[in-house]
Structure formats: C-alpha cells, structure tokens
Amino acid sequence: MKKIELKLISNIVIIFFASLLLTGCVQQPTKNNSADPSPSTYDQDQIRSDLEQFCISQEGIEEVAKYERSEGNISLTATYVWDQLSNEYTEPDPLNHKWELPYEWQTKYKEEENTQLVLCVKLLDKTESNSDVCEYEIDDDSLPGFVNLYDAEYEIKLYEARTANLIFEDTVEITQEECPEYWEFESEFSYNENKLPYEKLEKRLKDILADYIAH
C-alpha cells in the first residue's frame, strides 16, 4: 500500500513540473527600459520641429490635437511668417514684425501637442504709400526723423495641424493713409525708416480668423 502511495505522489510531482514548463510559468528576465529616452521629451522636440517646417512641407502631424470647431473652444494656433532674409518661415518676432495673434489663441512653448491650427503669413509685395512722408522730432537732436509708409499685400493660409487640410486661404491688400502718432526709431543714428501696415494686418487677421479659432 505504501509503495502505491509513493508512486502516486511521484507521478503527481512529475505532472506538476511538466505543467509549469508547458504553460511557460518559468520567469523570464525583464527588459530594462530605464536607458530609453523620455517619450514626452522626444515628442515635444519632434512636434516643435514639424510645426516649424509645416508651412513648407504641408504635412500633417499626427501627434497634435484634433481640430474641434465647437462652441466655447479655442483652437490653439501656431503662427509662422515668411522671412525673406533667411528664406524660410519663422515664428513672428514682435520686434521685427510688430504684430501677433491674441495670447490666448497662441500655441504655448512645450505644449505644442495641443496645437490644432497652423497659420502661414507671407508678404507678397509692398509699395510706397501715396500719403506724405511722416516727420518726427527727435529728442535732444536738431535733425528730424522720417518714416516712409508702405502698403502691402499678404498671403494668408490656415491649416488643420493634424491633417494639413487647408481650411482658409486669402490674399489681402492693406493700405496706410495716416502717420502713427508716435514712432520710436531703432537707434539714435536712425533718421529714415520704413513702416509696413502691421497694426492693420493684426486687426485683419483677428477679424478673419476669429470664427475659425475662437468659436
């Protein structure tokens, strides 16, 4: 009787270990991913780079937010302006371009994944305005300063960032008739400068794009 019990126990032990091998319960070494780069850091850098190239490539960016035109929603917008010197689209510089979209409309740095729209603005042509040259007195200087007004033609394109779908396109002509009440010259040695219709362009963009961005 004891021999039968020992044989039975032995068979049970053999079956148990065989089942472990068949079911793959033997623990395998785990892969250490601690050395991998942070996905969030990589994505932000890549998205930022893709956005900077968007106006040229016109390729959709899957990692950004879907464009939702719903009531109360603001579709964050990345804006780029054609720079003739560098021959590429760059972010608008308030010092040089002197205009920008409202802050609440703008894509925020390191939050590029929330971008829904991309705005591309390009100066196509400029011509000297028919208005008189603007003359200003410069403090502590006997010489006056002059500002030449220019009319301008701009190309405006608005895209969905994720799909690259063009949702708005227009060419606008903006003229200037009146001299600014105040003008700050770039340096103490600058007496003759040119002015594009920045303020009017900013207002026109707000009027045109409000329905697409601030719903």
Give the gist of this structure.
This protein has 215 residues and is an alpha/beta fold. It has three helices and seven strands; from the N terminus they run ααβββββββα. Strand 4 and strand 5 form a beta hairpin.
Notes on the structure:
The chain has 215 residues and is of the alpha/beta class. It has one domain (39-213). The chain has 3 helices and 7 strands; from the N terminus they run ααβββββββα. Strands 1, 2, 3, 4, 5, 6 and 7 form a 7-stranded mixed β-sheet that branches. The protein is elongated and about 60 Å long. The N and C termini lie far apart (87 Å).
Topology, pairings included?
Blueprint: H1 2-23, H2 39-57, E1 77-83, E2 88-90, E3 117-128, E4 134-136, E5 145-160, E6 166-174, E7 192-195, H3 198-213
What is the H-and-E element order?
Answer: HHEEEEEEEH
The counted number of beta strands is 7
Supply the number of structural domains. Answer: 1
| Main β-sheet description | 7 strands, mixed
Low-confidence runs of at least 5 consecutive residues: 1-10, 12-18, 20-39
What attributes does this structure have?
7-stranded mixed β-sheet; alpha/beta; 7 strands; disordered N terminus; 215 residues; 3 helices; 25% strand; 27% helix; elongated
